[in-house]
Amino acid sequence: MSERTILVWFRNDLRIHDNEILLEATRKADKILPVYCFDPYYFKTTTSGSPKTGNFRARFLLESVADLRKNLREMGAELIIRIGNPAEILPQLAEEYQVNEVYHHREVADEETTISEQVETALWKIKLNLKHFIGHTLYHKEDLPFPIKDIPDSFSTFKKKVERDSDVRPCAATPDAIHIPAITDAGELPTLQQLGLTGPVDDLRSANKFTGGETAGLNRLKECFLNNNPVNVKVVRNAAPADNSSKLSPWLALGCISLRQVYWEVKSHPHHTDHLILELLWRDYFRFMFKKHGQKLYKPANFIDETPLADAKEDELFEAWKTGNTGVPFIDASMHELNATGYINNYSRQMVAGYLVRNLEVNWVKGAAYFEEKLIDYSPASNWGNWAFIAGMAHDPRDNRYFNINKQASELETKGMFVDTWLPVADSAIG
User: Global pTM?
Assistant: First the structure.
């Protein structure tokens, strides 16, 4: 009897713990073929002349893929790495290694689902099935108290119903062992230059150092609960909230850790805060909204060229905003920090987005696309969903209370160290 081989296509699920497709593949097949593709589509130059994926985000991705390969090797496996179109690469690998089926986690945003459809079509031509799994949400779609088409558009209603009527599933077990076929060419991790980018320059003033990968993500999760002192956010009069956020979002965005891992870690501590769980619920909400409405509600990045041409005034205002030259200290300092580090906390994001949309009256799609380039924790549903929400597309204005935007930007204290433009320190070792 011939051996059964399943190809596991990693995308935004770069972990070995609580990874259902990896566990299921080890149970259903004799051999597993783990694969990651660096798709040139995500590293192209946009019509604005900027890279679709900036160098801070790309560096974090490279670190995450490298860590996944390391963790797989420690289990006796290997990660095949390729640069190219997955719709071309995956069928080639499937035929070379006599693969019986391909597993992957389903995405919801337009660009990602289009790529999945292209892969599915290409595999079907060689009579292979692409099996979809759901693994990016806290609550499994099948455990919701309503079908996708009936999900409440109001976050407050959504939150109340899922917390009352649904349960979070336990984390999936980690495979005991992963057996792979004899791999002739595993491929090398690309450099930033091979992806068309230069190495980022780290800023001395940054209080946060984000290293990609499941190992660093799990360490950060543990740090959140040291001494039974879970993270929380406190609002101070005439100032932004103290930045005590979890800072788990970069690892959540790439699936280096799962939402369920965070949830059950929170629940395991007797003095836990519900703030972290609220963050996870927002992620679920925006993802399910994408699933329900698609591009009817949220404008995906690849349609930015279809937006009306901005006049010179709007272009000028947008340029001042993204370079941190609006004249409003808190806004400018936040944008300096974003440009210098690839990260700002959620409160700052709400403030700079609100300022662009409401004060400067610039098309929100421009801001969302800029965040897509810069943020190391970019996630399509959360990013575009948040921007659409701020632009006034939410169905229930009462949901705004969850964002804690309680001061005008001009009234806030300046983000001290980042008032001036960024200070380069040293070139990154990656790339």
Answer: 0.88
